[in-house]
Amino acid sequence: MKYSNxxxxxxxxxTDRHPLREFLLLAGGALVLVLLLAWLVGGxxxxxxRLLPFESEERLVPTDMLSGDAGPxxxxxxxxxxxxxxxxxxxxAGMQVRVHASGDDTFNAFATLGGHVLLFRGLLEALPNExxxxxxxxxxxxxxxxxxxxVSIGRGAAIQLxxxxxxxxxxxxxxxxxxxxxQLHFNRDMERSADxxxxxxxxxxxxxxxxxxxxxxLIQQKRRHAGRGEPPAxxxxxxxxxxxxxxxxxxxxxxxxxxxxxxxxxxxxxxxxMADLARHGGAAE
Amino acid sequence: MLIxxxxxxxxxxxxxxxxxxxxxxxxxxxxxxxxMAGLKNIFGGELKGYTELLQESREEAMQRMQLQAExxxxxxxxxxxxxxxxxxxxxxxxxxxGTAVRLE
Amino acid sequence: MYDLIVxxxxxxxxxxxxxxxxxxxxxxxxxxxxxxxxxxxxAVRSPPVQPYYDQALVSGNVVVSVDYFKRFLAALRNLFxxxxxxxxxLLDRARREALLRMKExxxxxxxxxxxxxxxxxxxxxxxxRQTIGSVEVLAYGTALIDSRGQ
Lengths: 285, 104, 150
Hints:
The structure holds three protein chains of three kinds. By secondary structure, chain A is mostly helical. Chain A has helices at residues 19-50, 54-59, 72-88, 121-126, 130-145, 148-166, 173-206, 214-225, 241-255, 270-284; strands at residues 98-102, 109-112, 116-120. Chain A has one domain (60-147, 170-284). Chain C is elongated, with a radius of gyration of 19 Å. The interface between B and C is large, with 38 and 53 residues.
């Protein structure tokens, strides 16, 4: 008996396909799959959430978390503005907006479930005039009117559920992120339409839209000042500052609105209210 | 002691079968090796630390099997088999077993 | 955004280093295989009945880990099903490397051939998801040593 080990040709147990080709094919396919699924499911989840009546949305909010720090004069002033904005935006009956001011120096404002709008002192203090404040409130109230808070929760939950189920493998976490970017895409749409409605409200109240763009110039300035560049739009929940300013200019041009006019200054007592707000906010902590 | 994974030894006769003898060894790697392995997780390639660990572990298991064989008075272990199982995260059991025999 | 950048960097690193290491490893495997060809490894249980052969158990083992790129590719394959080509070459390399190590050990003790060669493949720390996806291959057999020379 003769025993030997002849050389066996290479490549019988392996596939000779370029790994990069395989990668592009699979990753591309998976990406399309994630985006398509997230888009479909997100749209469905959002639509489903919208079916929830506004009244029951209010019950989802822990109201004690949203107690504002504003003193009576500031609260009265904000409520009055909210009232004017609500009627300008033609809020449906039964949709009640509640505005709260927080003493925190965060540079932010948001609308959440149940028609609650939270404005932070950091942003309130920096506003140059009443028109910008109205633009800000109108933007947030437009979110309420569009039912954006509940819709984005429904969307987020639906996207996370499906993406988590299909792409739960930790090795595919990067693909799962694509689902989140789809959600951000929906978010940017919401922001754009809230901006457009807010501008309409400002025009309805003042007869011109001067001062409205100040809000976004302020945000842009603040960002530059902090030395933080904006992330590329697809990674952001909001459109780029530049795009928002351009959108305002476009809409002014299309509607033939006056973008110059006398801006209404903030009340004389405004700085005192802010100082008061800061004190209350500090005491609450 | 002759250890072989053949069933017979050419030219020698088995005069007595003494049943199954076995050796096992469970080992875990230490954290330092885990960190290196974590790096390898990105670049791929051989995990030398683990290779050595399993090698040592296998030697220990063989030694234990040999001790059993000596205890029953065998002078050879035939038809030896290895088996590896990861029983917990980061720990592996090496198991080796064979037939203890007495050769003439 | 930053985790995406980290992911892409890891992917590129895994691809670059992994491919380079694989090419080099294959070169070394082929070179050693042709050298050790004269020492046959036979998967037959019964050795030639010739009394002048001494026996010794020889083994070779290797633990290999898959790189980041290949793991991602395999995870993607998991979505669509089909042939996981990124693991094929990994296992091929591991099996041949283990056999070569066994042969090297046999060569060191002066064996003429290795009989009853068996493979044992075990995945280390499987089940632990995010951790090391590594596999051990053990090759073992009985070396037959020509004792006439001594």
